[in-house]
Amino acid sequence: MLLQQQRKRSRIVKMADSGVTDGNEKKGDIERAKNEGKELTKEEKQRLRKEKKQQKKSKEKKDDKAIQESGKETKGDSSAVSAPQPSTQSTAQKVPAPVSVPAPEAPTPAEKPPKSKAELKAERRARQEAERASKQSKKGDPGPQGAVSKSKAATNELQPVKRLPEHIQVDNPDVLKKLAKKLERQQTPGQNSAKKIPLRLDYGYKVSLFSHLHQYSRKAPLTQQLSIPSTVIHPAIVRLGLQYSQGIVAGSNARSIALLHAFKQVIRDYTTPPNEELSRDLVNRLKPYISFLNQCRPLSASMGNAIKYVKKEISNIPSQCKEEEAKRKLLFCIEWYIKEKIILAAKAIAESSIEKISDGDVILIYGCSSLVNHILCEALEKNRKFRVIVVDSRPRLEGREALRRLVQRGISCTYVLISAVSYILPEVSKVFLGAHALLANGYVMSRVGTSQIALVAKAFNVPVLVCCETYKFCERVQTDSFVSNELDDPDDLIVTRNGQTHLEHWQQEPPLGLLNLVYDVTPPDFVDLVITELGMIPCTSVPVVLRVKNVDQ
Amino acid sequence: MRLPPLSYRDSRSSWTKNTGTDTMELQAVLMAAGGGSRMTDLTYNTPKPMLPVGNKPLMWYPLNLLERVGFEEVIVITTKEVQKMMSTDSKMKRDIKMKMEVVCVPEDGDMGTADALRHIQQKIKTDILVVSCDLITDVALHEVVDLFRAHNATLAMLMSKAHEFTETVPGQKGKKRTAEQRDFVGVDESGKRLLFMANEADLEDGLSVRKSIIRKHPRMHIKTGLVDAHLYCLKKAVVDFLTENKSISSIRGELVPYLVRKQFSKTTNSQKVKEDLEDQTQKKNDCSTNHELLISSRDEPLLQLAQERSCWNDHRGDMSEAYHGGKLRCYVHIMEQGLCYRVNTLAAYIEANRQAPKLFEEPPVHPSAIISERCQVGSDSIIGERCQIAEKTSIKRSTIGISSNVKEKVKVTNSIVMHSVTIEEGCNIQGSVICSNAIIGRGADLKYCLVGNGQRIEPEAPCASLWLTQIRVSAVCVRVCVCVFVFFYVCVRACACVCVHYIDGEVREHGQNRTTRNSTAAACSHTHTHTHTRTLLTREHSHAPFVLSFHTTVAKLILSNRFLHTKTCLCGWNTALCHHLFWISTAERTNEVIVGTDQLMEI
């Protein structure tokens, strides 16, 4: 009985691992991919997604904390745990074979020897985990609760360590320590500790609800702590990181393209050290780079997907492949990804969305989405007669750039700030929005303010169309903008007008906090249509697309 | 402002082996071949890079700066002489652990900094960071390099607010420091993009800014009062360009203004377009681009795509894309606070010596120095290795060089004492610079003096006083303004007078030859020397101590020593413009030491 419980726990832990699928934390994924073959991972993920949704619904009504936890993909219910039991049990114990559920094809890796090294490792790990869990539960609450609740408590206690991605647990010093350790670990062993990627300093002050998020100051770039001819990190990556943190490369698409470009440089300059395998060594080489970039600015979902793709391609390279060829292959793959997933996708989206633009339309756009700009320019070339209203908001005022690009093409535009949106909406016939990511529950993550626009548009009965390439689809689930978001430099909110800066010394005012949120999520109720390169779909079909994508890959 | 200890260096070389990457980001180049033409009095015997500042050779500071930020190797461009001294200098050996590749350039050749870069072109594999050897700064170097990185700039440089040197400089008086020509530096609204650069000397009537700049950057801030720190990040393409274009010889004088100008010229912007349009014309372009700068990076189209998709722009107010589509971009980081000195004048040298101790964490008193217990050494003073400080001595705000010997009852305030100097009993030294190997006789009283290398000040000079004189010497047939600094050190036994003369002569075209009125007659009278020059001085100034005759090609100094029983030490030096300096003395009964720039004669 006890053994079973332990197993159960270990399973939970495992699932938690796979649950953490957001862009930053792929370590678990990769390890497991190594251990068990990736088919399983995907299935597990899908299953998990379903569960999560259910739980979300049940939990939404609970208090703040509960919401937060649910956002952090809590799984307290033992019933929910027991659901995927049969399949996971098999994974934890014996052969890592995906049993049942929707996997139609999937060459089962059951041919593997029953006691592989990886498997042994997994077992050992599970045992350790279970022991730790039981210890904690004993210490934590010497339960008056039953066995089930005990296990629940155990899982609950495990959660902060195992489940949440680190980037939303900044307020927990243990997690920070872990992150620092992780950064250290990522370096080649045998290196001096001075050569690890430094931990970027936090800004210091945070608005109370958001203390779990990183907040960096633009004035303290990570390069401050790096040696100057950067030896640890490839120069292209350093440059990219700076461009991210200074906002020179901004926007999901631009960031992904620039990232892939930098990866190309890295791969080109890469030589496999003796006694190493390219597929392994290169992935390890990329890891510190990615955590460096993540500290420059939290990775976007699109970048997460791109990284995932590159890593997969690297690990797919057979060990007997010659280095030159492997590199060529990888470069080609990256080129292909950019072409297929970004450029051609934009083209396809433009084509289908032009159908939605009819003569005489007044189109409202918000901020500066490269995709929406592209669509509008294409529509102009197709001789559609339409007018654009560019809505903008502080502090970035990206709408100005969108305005410039559109006006330069000769599109007639109106420019208003977001505060005037309800005034302008009666004359609007369609709202086109870009997206940072589409989440698995159909929520649209985009520049902060987007949900407001969608809400007002809904109130005025104006159709809201979200344009988004499928590579920005994300398996994460989020129902609010608190749990996982990005905090930009609060100093951006300060304005200097006529030589006067009113908030210059805002840090000295303890009751005052400045919050510069970057994203918000728009519930699917406000979005009428999502235009992707696969066609026009409702928000709620995101999981379907994701599933199809997973199967494709 | 203490800087963090060295930390990046350890086991770095092993890493490069480990990772097998040969991508270097930046190569450091240290320019240490300059002669120090603006402080010849100090560099007469010691080349500028080896001048002691805070008991460390001057070039230690930029090297340390590079090492501190993480460079593991550096190319040092210098002269044979400096190389020899470097190899013997213990500080350099001990403190600088990075790999130094020393490249020697001919000493007397007119090699500019750009020429030097051309000289080492084969060694340059990637973008470079050029530092001058006379830079002492605590700048956070990443600020400059980050500009270079983030904007993919062609040039990124460091500038600093000009410092007012408050200390009294030996041999200088009043507000005569207008010789420096002001720089006008135009930056954009962010204060980072370098748009415009002009020197006062090049302007004939007013500042004219090209229309192409104004059109692209309607708001430009033009700043003055900035000092160029001579620290440049340059793209490799610039070095390639230099090898093609041999007419540029100096980085600061020619290359930087060229690059800044080129940002807005048509050719660089349109060239790329041309190449894109027709591949066939590329060959033709290649021929014609011999003298053009080609800035391009790998995977250009991809980068451009990223830039296109990015919702960022460096400016607003017009319809053009970020950077106005230009590929050549120059950036400048202007230090608002912190230390930044270029040690190229005497005043800067003195100031740097005051500030240098703040830059590094070292005990001000070297452990091997022997200091008697009954002496006062201020915490703001530095005592070098193997110094001997005797009893009842007080040292305040001063630097005492290696192996110097300070005897009893000496008072040293605000002074710089270089290496192996002996200061005998009862001396009082204030605000002075005493070069290496000098011997200060017993009881000398030096105020705001500059004592040359190996000079000896007679003992028993009970009342030494300083004379700062500025004599304007007008000379014939010279169009060019020549500033000649002459420093006389006269020790006259009879009246026991130490006199330092500083003649800031502005040689002008002038009909009459006579010294101007503001020469200090008093100083002269003390020395009781009679001087005479064949061409220049009128009789009314015949009691001036020395007579100088400057000519652009032939400068003559004739000393006719009618004075008796004097012993004259005479140190004179001139700028490079005075090629010939004749010293003729008719003195018979004197021991004169005449020091010229290029010779040392004893009569």
Automatic annotation (TrEMBL), chain B:
- Which residue ranges does the record assign to the Nucleotidyl transferase domain? 28-161
Q: Which residues form the EIF2B subunit epsilon/gamma LbH domain?
A: 369-460
What is the superkingdom listed in this entry's lineage? Answer: Eukaryota
Give its localization. Answer: Cytoplasm, Cytosol
The record's principal subcellular location, in a coarse class, is: cytoplasm
Annotated GO biological processes are: cytoplasmic translational initiation
Q: Which Pfam families does the annotation name?
A: LbH_EIF2B, NTP_transferase
Q: Which family does it belong to?
A: Belongs to the eIF-2B gamma/epsilon subunits family.
User: Which proteins does it associate with, and in what oligomeric form?
Assistant: Component of the translation initiation factor 2B (eIF2B) complex which is a heterodecamer of two sets of five different subunits: alpha, beta, gamma, delta and epsilon. Subunits alpha, beta and delta comprise a regulatory subcomplex and subunits epsilon and gamma comprise a catalytic subcomplex. Within the complex, the hexameric regulatory complex resides at the center, with the two heterodimeric catalytic subcomplexes bound on opposite sides.
Protein name stated in the entry: Translation initiation factor eIF2B subunit gamma
Organism, as annotated: Gambusia affinis (Western mosquitofish)
Q: What taxonomic classification does the UniProt entry list for its organism?
A: Eukaryota, Metazoa, Chordata, Craniata, Vertebrata
